[in-house]
Predict the 3D structure of the following.
Amino acid sequence: MTCVATVIGLDISKNVFVAVGREDQGREAFRKKLSRRQVLTFFARATPAKVGIEACSGAHYWARSLAGQRHDVCLIAGQHVKAYLTGNKNDANDAAAIAEARRRAMTKYVPLNTEAQQDLQMMHRVRQSLIERRTGVINQDRGLLGEYGIVIATGAQTFRRELGAILASDAHGLSASALDNFRDLSHQLDDLEEHLAQYDSRIRHAARSDERARRLMEVPGVGVLTATALLASLNDASPFDSGRHFAANIGLVPHEHSTGGRQRLFGITKRGDRYLRMLLIHGARSALQWAHKRSDRILRWAADLQQRKGTNVAAVALANKLARIVWALLAHGRHYESAHLAGMTAR
C-alpha cells in the first residue's frame, strides 16, 4: 500500500497500533489498524511523512525505527495530544489527535532518546528502585522492632549499625524466632546494598568515560549522578532554543496565570522529569552549604537569596540557574568558567 498522507499520527500499544494519515489540506487520507509486526512494513511502503507518536512506553524505539525509514518522526507529550482529542477516547481518535497535533507549528516535542541514553537512564531507574526497596525494608524493620519496644534513630547508616548490635547481643531479650527474622531482613538489606554499590560503580564509570559528563561535573552542585542523568535526558541541546526552555521543560520555572495585562506568577510548574528536577535541587542544596565561602558570583548570589528568601527558594532558584548553565555547556561545547559566568550574571 502506498500512502499519500503528509502527516501520520501513530497510536502505539503493546500489540494493537492505529495509524491515521492526513493530507496537506488536513483531510483524512486513511485510518488503519495494524498489528505489531505490520507497523514497520506499513511505514516502509508509505511515502516519507511527518509522523507523530505520543511520548509513552516504547515510543523512543518506534521513533528511531521509523526515522530509519526516512520519516520525520517527533514525540509529543500526552497533555499536548489531549487538547486535540474529539469524541470518545479510543485508539483511532487518539491517533487522529496525534496527527492533528503533529500538523500544528506551535506543538512542542519531546527530545528523542538514543539507545545509549536509554541504557544510562535504565541504570538510574534501577538504582532508584533499589533505594526505594531498601527504604521499604528499613521501614519494615523499624516497625517490627518498635513492636518489641526498640526504637532506632533515623538514618540508613545508623539503622544498619544499631541492627548489627542488636543481632550480636541478647540484651534486648528477643526470642530466637524474632532474631532469625531480623537476620533474614538484615541479609535482604545486605543484598540490596551490594546491588546498589554495583550500579553506583557503573554510573561512575559512565561519567568518567564521557567527556561531556566531566565538563558538567565542573559546575557547582553537579556530581556524578546529576551529570549522567542530565546526559540521559539531554544528549543534544538543539531541541531547546535556550537554557530557559530547558529549565521550563523540567519544571523549574514559575507557573503563570496572567490575564488582562496583569502578570501573576506562582510556584514552579513541576513539569517534566521529576527525577532530574530532584537531583538538580538536591545538588543546589549541597552547593548552598558552602556558597558563602566561594567567590563564584552565582553561588554568592544564591547565598544572598538564601538570607532574604530562605533555603528552599534559594535552592530552587539555584537549580534553575544550574539547568541553564548545563544547557549552555552542552549547546556550545564549553567548560564551566566561573569568572565568565559571574560577569554574565552581573550584567
